[in-house]
Amino acid sequence: MITPLDNVSIIVAAAKNGAIGLNNQLLYRLPNDLKRFKALTTGHTIIMGRKTFESLPKGALPNRRNIVLSRQAGLHYDNAECYRSLEEALMQCDYTEDIYIIGGGELYKQTLALATRLHLTLVDDTPAEADAFFPTLNPEEWTETAREEHPTDDKHAQAYTFIDYKRK
Q1: Higher confidence at residue 1 or residue 42?
Q2: Cα 40 to Cα 54: distance, rounded to the nearest angstrom
């Protein structure tokens, strides 16, 4: 049995069917979601898979401790720490650090049982195509703590809802 860690959160934008990406790219351009992501993660540790890191347009995200997971030995990225396993990465983190898991799909599956908080942007859409998905939440394990709905507008082609969860 995995014991959740008080300092681990997941942050994700997902469609109604759990779709999060296609061809190593996000499915949606939601400026307010990016602002929320920045506000929540700045000054904290972010952990991501190699493909997620490589999809970032400018490399390591500023004002955050960037940790990249990859099974490849000897991997190096500027302004990021690379580890071969989640366990190895977590051993390098202090229990007082706020850690955000930022993707991709495989890492979300691996860490869902570890997280005590989830920051979901639920996009009111079901894309025709996707190759990366967020795992299905078990409602018996999570309590919704906040919800903020947003309609479409000139900068957001899809309606979306910010939903925060806490592990029961």
Answers
A1: 42
A2: 21
CA pair distance 88, 105, nearest whole angstrom: 19
Q: Mind listing the domains of the chain with CATH numbers?
A: 8-167 (3.40.430.10)
Q: What is the pTM (predicted TM-score) of this model?
A: 0.96
Whether residue 47 has pLDDT greater than 80: yes
Question: What pLDDT shows up at residue 15?
Answer: 98
- pLDDT at position 4: 82
Q: Provide the greatest CA pair distance for the chain.
A: 46
Specify the higher pLDDT residue, 61 or 2.
Answer: 61
Structure tokens at 151: 């309609």
Query: Which tokens in the block code for residue 166?
Result: 């806490």
Query: Could you tell me which residues come within 8 angstroms of residue 70 by beta carbon, excluding any fewer than 6 positions away?
Result: 49, 50, 82, 84
Per-residue DSSP letters for 2-50?
Answer: PPPPTTEEEEEEEETT-EEEETTEES---HHHHHHHHHHHTTSEEEEEH
**Element containing residue 144 per DSSP (H, E):** strand 142-150
